[in-house]
UniProtKB/TrEMBL annotation:
Keywords: DNA-binding, Transcription, Transcription regulation. SUPFAM superfamilies: GntR ligand-binding domain-like, Winged helix' DNA-binding domain. It comes from Actinomadura logoneensis. PANTHER family: GLUCONATE OPERON TRANSCRIPTIONAL REPRESSOR, TRANSCRIPTIONAL REGULATOR, GNTR FAMILY. SMART domains: FCD (SM00895), HTH_GNTR (SM00345). The keyword rRNA-binding does not apply. Residues 10-78 form the HTH gntR-type domain. InterPro entries: GntR_C, TF_FadR/GntR_C, Tscrpt_reg_HTH_GntR, WH-like_DNA-bd_sf, WH_DNA-bd_sf. GO terms for molecular function: DNA binding; DNA-binding transcription factor activity. Coiled coil: none annotated. The lineage of its organism: Bacteria, Bacillati, Actinomycetota, Actinomycetes, Streptosporangiales. This is FadR family transcriptional regulator. It comes from the Bacteria.
């Protein structure tokens, strides 16, 4: 193996992990590739075996390699073996730019989960969450209709959008959606400012937000699903237009 460089003595295992993971994700180390033996890797990285083994264990846990005790360590098909925790690493391509295909996938997942969570929240959310959702809507109305230019303030709109959907996800009572939201928010953090700008029209759509909150308060799951899907699809369309196939 070539192309690796010695690492600093601080966070040695992490540095080794990052180098190997990057080469797997960008295809430099293809599916099925056999990694060199431990001795060769420790010499190339300039680290001890303990640090190397820790790095390999992390790669194995992430679904990037398969460690066969007494045998070779090989690159796995991460699309079949990894979990959503890999998503933030895929958001940026090998050149450091945003991977358009991953962005599209993230936005499609956001729409699907958000719509279903809204439907579930209509039937499950306790009074406290419904009340808090109404409070966020009131704050959004004040921001958008006020004289301070809040309707065009991407960061201010985002600051209300996150708790709005957080409450709907929490109200759904679905732990898988809860964890997925955490990953989605983390996934597009490298492009947070751009995403916030692209979602401005969605986030300042007061009529859509009012209809969605009213549907949840009325316990109308199907109406909540439809309103959430329409709202989120507006943002999805804006992002996909910016990152065409």
């Amino acid at each position: 193996m070539s192309g690796f460089s010695p690492v600093e003595r601080t966070s040695v295992a992490t540095a080794v992990f990052e180098q190997i993971a990057a080469r797997i994700l960008d295809g430099t180390l293809p599916l099925g590739e056999r990694l060199p033996a431990e001795r060769a890797l420790t010499e190339e990285f300039g680290v001890n075996r303990q640090a190397l083994r820790e790095a390999l264990q992390r790669l194995d846990q992430l679904g990037l390699v398969e460690i066969r005790h007494g045998g070779a360590t090989r690159v796995r098909d991460f699309r079949r073996t990894a979990g959503l925790d890999l998503l933030p690493r895929l958001f940026l391509g090998a050149d450091g730019g945003i991977d358009a295909a991953v962005v599209r996938s993230v936005m499609e997942m956001r729409t699907a989960i958000g719509a279903d969570a809204a439907a579930l929240a209509a039937g499950r959310a306790p009074a406290g969450i419904r009340s808090a959702l109404r409070d966020v809507l009131t704050a959004l109305e004040a921001l958008v209709t006020g004289d301070g230019g809040g309707a065009d303030d991407a960061a201010a709109l985002a600051a209300l959008d996150v708790p709005f959907w957080d409450l709907l996800i929490e109200g759904s009572g679905n732990v898988c959606y809860r964890l997925s939201l955490n990953v989605l928010l983390d996934a597009y953090r490298p492009a947070q400012a751009l995403v916030d700008e692209l979602l401005v029209d969605e986030r300042r759509d007061l009529a859509a937000h009012r209809d969605l909150v009213a549907a949840v308060e009325a316990g109308d799951g199907e109406r909540a699903r439809a309103r959430a899907a329409a709202l989120l699809d507006r943002g999805r369309a804006a992002v996909l237009a910016h990152f065409p196939e």
